[in-house]
């Protein structure tokens, strides 16, 4: 993508595209015709398994109010007790907190290009797949990557955070 193409994208998608370019990621964000606010909607739009959707879930760490980002496989539920054991006690994050800390609205939270760097964990269940898709900063925006790319792009550890 060149600069002119980026200007036509929503602000959040532009931020994600810039980070992807800076980190030499081979796949630019794409805009879907329909919103993909849920993992199932994204999977349906892309024609992939719901587990291939890397959903970004934000929690609020109680000790310091930090945003905790869990990037989880779309077909798994996050076990909050497992997350708490790694990062400290967390609680739910409301839409205002998510927007303030990430710069993205719920339904379009990307794993990268956050307003403030979150504490991040990557669900090991994503590694069942060769290719995954993540939100690109907007409910219609997504980008393609491999689970290993998430580690490189975020610098986050891989953890067991899914419910049994």
Give a verbal description of the structure:
- By secondary structure, the protein is an alpha/beta fold.
- It contains six helices and eight strands; from the N terminus they run H-H-E-H-E-E-H-E-H-E-E-E-H-E.
- Strands 1, 2, 3, 4, 5, 6, 7 and 8 form an eight-stranded mixed sheet that branches.
Could you say which structural class the secondary elements and strand pairing correspond to?
alpha/beta
Compute the number of strand runs. 8
Compressed to H and E, one letter per element, the order equals: HHEHEEHEHEEEHE
**What is the mean pLDDT?**
94
Cα-based radius of gyration, to the nearest Å: 15 Å
Helix content: 25-40%
The low-confidence parts are none
State the distance separating the first and last CA atoms. 41 Å
In terms of DSSP E residues, the strand content is 15-25%
What's the overall geometry?
Answer: globular
Provide a concise account of the structure shown.
The chain has 164 residues and is of the alpha/beta class. It has helices at 3-7, 11-22, 39-46, 80-87, 95-102, 147-154; strands at 30-31, 53-61, 67-73, 90-92, 119-123, 132-135, 141-145, 158-159. Helix content is 30%, strand content 23%.
Question: How are the secondary structure elements laid out?
Answer:
Blueprint lengths: L2 H5 L3 H12 L7 E2 L7 H8 L6 E9 L5 E7 L6 H8 L2 E3 L2 H8 L16 E5 L8 E4 L5 E5 L1 H8 L3 E2 L5
Parallel strand pairs: 2-6, 3-5, 5-8
Antiparallel strand pairs: 1-7, 2-3, 2-4, 6-7
Keywords:
164 residues, 8 strands, eight-stranded mixed sheet, alpha/beta, globular
């Amino acid at each position: 993508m060149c600069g002119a193409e980026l200007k036509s994208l929503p602000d959040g998608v532009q931020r994600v595209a810039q980070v992807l370019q800076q980190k030499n990621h081979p796949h630019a964000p794409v805009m879907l015709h329909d919103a993909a606010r849920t993992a199932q909607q994204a999977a349906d739009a892309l024609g992939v398994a719901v587990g291939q959707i890397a959903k970004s879930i934000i929690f609020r760490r109680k000790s310091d109010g930090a945003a905790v980002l869990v990037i989880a496989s779309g077909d798994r539920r996050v076990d909050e007790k497992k997350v708490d054991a790694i990062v400290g006690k967390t609680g739910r994050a409301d839409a205002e907190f998510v927007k303030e800390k990430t710069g993205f609205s719920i339904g379009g939270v990307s794993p990268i290009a956050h307003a403030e760097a979150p504490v991040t964990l990557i669900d090991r269940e994503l590694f069942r797949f060769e290719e995954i898709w993540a939100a690109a900063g907007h409910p219609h925006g997504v980008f393609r990557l491999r689970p290993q790319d998430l580690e490189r792009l975020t610098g986050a550890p891989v953890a067991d955070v899914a419910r049994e």
